[in-house]
Design a protein that fits this description.
Length: 173
């Protein structure tokens, strides 16, 4: 519990509690960090907790700013610390929003092993289909080679087109 000695108008010395509702000032940062570390935690409650922390810091700023003319440099440092806390919490909120957007963004790694696997499965499916409709293996192989060559010619345009796609347009389809 923080206390300060004050001298009243009558000259009497008494202790003043600086608690100012310390039970209400308990930081929720540990809870916020726990929620951030949970990839399944919804963003809205985390942002709400950050907003509460910002509000608490702002309340402290207002209280200390109102008293600043009569307070010493130690309390002035508290005001600066609260201001820094508000800035840090706002930045945390921005980072959360950015990470949420990035986690939902649709990335396509043309050179990655997953895409190579999927394309090989499609190629094998096409080969099986050609065999099923009675096309001999030689003709089917010739078709796949021609198709591969054509797609290799188109690959740069496909990559450029994919890079231009916006997240919102791919999500709605």
């Amino acid at each position: 519990m923080n206390e300060r000695l004050k001298v009243g108008e009558d000259g009497e010395v008494y202790r003043e509690s600086l608690d100012n509702g310390a039970s209400q000032n308990v930081s929720a940062m540990d809870d916020i960090i726990t929620q951030i570390n949970d990839p399944n935690a919804p963003l809205a409650p985390i942002k709400r907790s950050i907003a509460v922390e910002i509000a608490k810091a702002n309340r402290g700023l207002i209280e200390y700013s109102n008293q600043l003319t009569s307070l010493g440099s130690l309390d002035g440092m508290k005001v600066k610390a609260l201001e820094a806390q508000v800035k840090a919490l706002r930045e945390l909120g921005k980072e959360l929003m950015e990470s949420d957007v990035l986690s939902k963004k649709d990335f396509l790694n043309f050179d990655g092993p997953k895409l190579a696997f999927v394309l090989e499965e499609f190629r094998q499916g096409a080969m099986d289909t050609l065999r099923k409709i009675g096309i001999d293996d030689g003709t089917a192989q010739q078709f796949l080679r021609q198709w591969r060559d054509l797609m290799m010619e188109r690959e740069p345009n496909i990559r450029r087109s994919v890079d231009k796609l916006e997240f919102e347009t791919t999500e709605k389809k």
